[in-house]
Amino acid sequence: MVAGSKCASVAAIGDQAKRSSATSLRLATPAPVLLDEDAVITIRSLLGSADGDSHIGRALALPIGARLSKNNKLVKANPSHFVPVVPPGRTRANSVRALTRRSETRKDEDGNWIPETDPVQRQQFGEFKRFIVHFRGQWVDRDSPLVKQRPADYEAII
Questions:
Q1: Number of domains in the chain
Q2: What are the CA-CA distances from residue 91 to residues 3, 22, 155 (Å)?
């Protein structure tokens, strides 16, 4: 009799251990997938408060190229720092995704290259002003001459 009750109590302890480990075990829920249609890309570094890096200036909150939801508080507070991944009029059928940032120099109405007036930009990129055509990760018209010139810089959207 004693041996039987001992086995029953060992089994009860085992069941209790299983229940407690099952309740303490939390399964990680996957982060929701951010669709391109609901995303924006950071085009300028977004600086935060100088909470820990005050000796070097304001801390970096978001680097260029970060993807966020259109509904994020940072996006709403700093709209000039973001562009939509999917510009108006773009669909999966008529677009490709840019793998690189693309800029170009342009001429004015007289046919002269537009000079760069910002000395920092001039030192970095040269004497002519550069205009951003699209950013890395943005959807671009698949029939664009840029896509035809450099197809390796773009990928199909599935």
A1: 2
A2: 73, 46, 14
Tokens 């890309």 -> residue: 41
Q: Which domain holds residue 39?
A: 33-85
Q: Which two tokens stand for residue 54?
A: 């005050």
Examine the domain organization and report whether 106 and 149 are in the same domain: yes
- For range 122-147, the mean pLDDT: 89
Contact 79, 71 (CB under 8 A): no
Q: Can you read off the two tokens belonging to residue 57?
A: 């200036």
44-72 residue pLDDT tens = 887 766 555 555 555 567 888 889 999 99
AA letter at 18: K
Q: Is this structure's pTM higher than 0.85?
A: no
- Which residues, 6 or more positions from 136, have their beta carbon under 8 angstroms from its beta carbon? 41, 65, 98, 99, 100, 101
The answer as to whether 12 is a domain residue is no
Rounded Cα distance between 32 and 40, Å, is 16
Answer for the pair 108, 134: CB distance below 8 angstroms, yes or no: no
